[in-house]
Here is the input.
Amino acid sequence: MNPITILYFGDLMARLSIGREQLRLPPSVKDVAGLLKVLAMRGGDWQAAFGQPRATLHVTVNKQEAAADTPLQGGDEVAFIESVSL
Here is the structure.
């Protein structure tokens, strides 16, 4: 699979010290849920950010609202937006 582009916004960008990355997914990763598992396996702050579903984490694929079962393919742009209410 061609790499996907991952964008991190809000608190995620600060906590993970990254705003953007290119990632080549293993062939077994077919959807957003699989991507979340791959990111959580990095451990530490990554596990805390992606290991458990939570209402404050929003995901888009190619600028469209996405769910855990949204399929991924090479060239996609995935954005993770952490929304924290004040």
